[in-house]
Amino acid sequence: MTQLINNDLLGTQNQSLESGLKSDYTALGEKLARSDINIEAILQKAKAFSIAVPSWGVGTGGTRFARFPGQGEPRNIYEKLDDCSVIQQLSQATPAVSLHIPWDRPSDPNELRQYADQYGLMFDAMNSNTFQDQANQENSYKYGSLTHTSQAVRDQAIAHNIDVVELGQKLGSKALTIWVGDGSNFPGQQHFKNSFAQYIDSIKQIYATLPNDWNMLLEHKIFEPAFYSTVIQDWGSSYLAAKETGERCLSLVDLGHHAPNVNIEMIVSRLAQFGKLGGFHFNDSKYGDDDLDSGSINPYQLFLVFNELTDIQLENPSYSPFYMLDQSHNVTDPIESLMYSAAEVQRAYVKSLLVDRKALAHYQQTNDPMMAQATLKQAYNLDVEPILQMARFQSNGAIDPIACYRESGYRQQCAQARPVDPNKTGSGII
Ligand code: LRH
Ligand code: MN
Ligand code: MN
Which residues form a coiled coil (predicted)? Predict the structure, then answer.
């Protein structure tokens, strides 16, 4: 397998941290044993955890006002995969990449698959894009896509999604994620019922062509780019559309796509209870769709989301929604941020495994809110870092991925090999 970070460097870095890690791990194991928790069983689950990296996340994003390109940014999907392979090599938690089409459209899908293969990378859910006009496209998405008033525009958007599925099949993907920005900026601009009916009609046509082993994931978002109304603005609209469409059509929760203070963990529970929770875009947010690194603002919320997921998995161990990161970097090195985020999501998962569920059920049953929340906090407050580090170490990743990455000089090498494109220094998103 091709590895872009020198393995000798990785080995030397790990060696310098190994004995400290072993004592921390032993100490944590002893502490957990006092609560009848076997650290080895938790370690195995941590090692099995994985989350997909968004192809667009390895580039530096922009704001609506400006874009400051990072050094050595990937210029095409192959260079994006190079960066994703580094994230996987060091974090050992991100074996798959989620593509966005047409941003990542390969001229030869087989060649792209082989390129990913050399790194041991796979392709996770495919994302379609009908929120932007593309070159040589007959109709504009200025007033919407799958929900548009014009049948011709809807047909174009439907055809694009079908095309993305066909491409995804060649790459070994198993899901299509649909997010549309369709909506309106002014009261009265759009007929609520008609636009939703048009959306459902459009996705049914896409669903009809979906391979049997694929899922279709509907991603809702409260606002932006539409600022008055958005057709798929909430989990309710997403659920209704998914339910109307078919069994393999599910809802996807992007953590940043809700109003501040919304109880996202309860949305997770509701969708799962009715068999419609299909996947996640993990990130963090303080105000809106901020696309900040996972766990950087509200790690407790992330833990509470995983607390629900672990609860569901106890009943249904084979339940495995699609996990993806979706973040955008303006001020950090995207590789560092993605490695850090993957570990934060993994940390929330591991902590959720430590919740004393018997005790929690008892406190819920006996209406003891103090002890119920203390039971959750007991798991949340544990420092599980030695488990995460050991999981990476035993899987040939880095005990300290960011230190190892910085030491490798990978970014500096990319800066040499990938000079900044002067046409991409302007303003605007992505
Ligand atoms: C929309 C979104 C969606 C897109 C991505 C670029 O805000 O979260 O997932 O595909 O950003
Ligand atoms: Mn998203
Ligand atoms: Mn978003």
Answer: none
Contact between 25 and 390 (Cβ < 8 Å): yes
Question: What is the rounded distance in angstroms from the CA atom of residue 95 to the CA atom of residue 323?
Answer: 11
The closest alpha carbon to 270, from 238, 225, 227, 232, belongs to: 238
Please report the domains of the chain, with CATH numbers, ordered by start residue. Answer: 7-417 (3.20.20.150)
* H helix count then E strand count, the chain: 15, 11
- Measured between alpha carbons, how far is 94 from 43 in angstroms, rounded to an integer? 17
Q: Which ligand has the nearest atom to the CA of 325? A: 2
Cβ of residue 49 lying under 6 Å from some atom of ligand 1: no
* Pocket of ligand 1 contains residue 56 by CB under 6 Å: yes
CA 35 vs. chain centroid, Å, equals 32
Residue 345's closest CA among 51, 62, 144? 51
How many whole angstroms separate alpha carbon 351 and alpha carbon 368?
Answer: 22
Q: How many CB atoms lie within 10 A of CB 364?
A: 13
State percent of the chain over pLDDT 70: 98
- Residues contacting 404, CB < 8 A, separation 6+: 5, 9, 10, 13, 90, 398
Radius of gyration of the chain (CA): 22
pLDDT on residue 226: 98
- What residue type is 92 in one-letter code? Q
Rounded-to-integer distance, Cα 95 and Cα 51, Å: 7
ipTM rounded to 2 decimals: 0.99
Length of the chain (residues): 430
Strand partners, 251: 218, 277
Which residues 6+ apart lie within 8 Å of 159 measured at CB? none
Is the C-beta atom of 219 inside 6 A of ligand 1?
Answer: yes
Residue nearest to atom 2 of ligand 1 (CA): 179
Tell me: pLDDT of 424 over 80.
Answer: no
Predicted confidence (pLDDT) at residue 429 exceeds the cutoff of 60 = no
d(CA 156, CA 93): 37
State which ligand 1 atom lies nearest to the alpha carbon of 254.
8
- Residue-wise burial string across 348-363, b where 16 or more C-beta atoms lie within 10 A, e elsewhere: bbbbbbbbbbebbeeb
Within 13 Å, how many C-alpha atoms sit on residue 388's CB side? 23
What SS3 state is found at 391? Answer: helix
Which tokens is 284 given?
Answer: 């963090």
pTM of the model: 0.97
In angstroms, rounded to a whole number, what is the distance separating the alpha carbons of residues 195 and 244? 15
- CA–CA dist 336, 142 (Å, integer): 35
